Structure formats: C-alpha cells, structure tokens
Amino acid sequence: MTDRDALTLDDGELIGARVVGARHAGGAFAKSRLVDVELVRCDLSGCDFSESVWQRVTLADCRCSSIELPQTRMRDVTFTDAKLDDANLRMARLVNVRFGASGLVGALFGAAELDGVAFPDCDLSGADFANARVHEVDLRDARLEGLQGLSSLRGATIAPEQLVVLAPALAYALGMIVRATEK
What we know:
The chain is mostly beta strands. The protein is 7% helix and 27% strand. The chain contains one helix and eight strands. An eight-stranded parallel β-sheet has the order 1-2-3-4-5-6-7-8, with no helix packed on it.
C-alpha cells in the first residue's frame, strides 16, 4: 500500500493506497473506482463520487459533509469517526458497510439498497430512508430522532429503548391516529 497526501486517480482508479490529510472539498470524482484504499483525516466535504465503486475502503476521522454518493456501489467499507451530515446516498448499493461513531444527520438513503449495514454509535437524526430496501441492517445504539421513511426499514434491528423514540413516527407511518381519551 502506497502512502499519498492527495486523492489522485489514475484513469479514474485508486488501488492499494493510504491517503492522509488530503483536502479535496468540492472535488469531482464521479464514476471513480477505489479498491483497497484507506483515507485518514481527509476533507471530502461536497465531493462528487456519483456512480463510483468502493471496495475494501476505510475512512477514519474524515470530514464528508454533503458528500455526493448517489448510485455508488460500496462493498466492505468502514467509516469511523466520520462526519457525513447531509450525505447523499440515494440509489446507492451498500454491502457490508459499517458507519461507526459517525454523524449522518440529514443523510439521504432514498431508494438505496442496504445489506449487512451497521450504524453503531451514529447520529442518524433526520436521515431519510424512503423507498430504501434493507437486509440485516443494525440500527442499535444509533440516534434515530426524526428518522424519515420508517416503513422502508422493515426488518432492521433496533434496541428496545429506541422504540420509544420511534413510536410516534411508526404510528404515523402505519396510518394510526393517536388521541387521548376524553373524560
């Protein structure tokens, strides 16, 4: 694995590299391919990775606010201590992806496919999962206030204490009317 200080692609690819401290806010990396890549303390805020392919990629302590990842295919990807607020993962395909201790406030997962995805110690407040398809998704230990698209999370795993936070949104998603009894 070669060490680099910038995310430079050769013919749209980066294979077997460790990138530390790169600053690429707003960069264009659409349709790129990252394989066996480690990104450490990088600023990828607002970067466009639309329709990219990520395999065996690790991001540690990276800033990725408003990152564009629509239609991206990720397999065996790990985010640790990453800031992914307002990330766009619409129509992305995520397989064996782990978001650990990361902020995903307002992230968009609309029509995404999530298989074997975990969010331990993450803040998913206001994230939108409308029309997502999930399989073996673990939301335990994640902050879930204001989560949208709950009906698309059928089969996801939550902790018992999270049910209290989700109860009003679940009742709404099911079309239930919640009314106090009249005395």
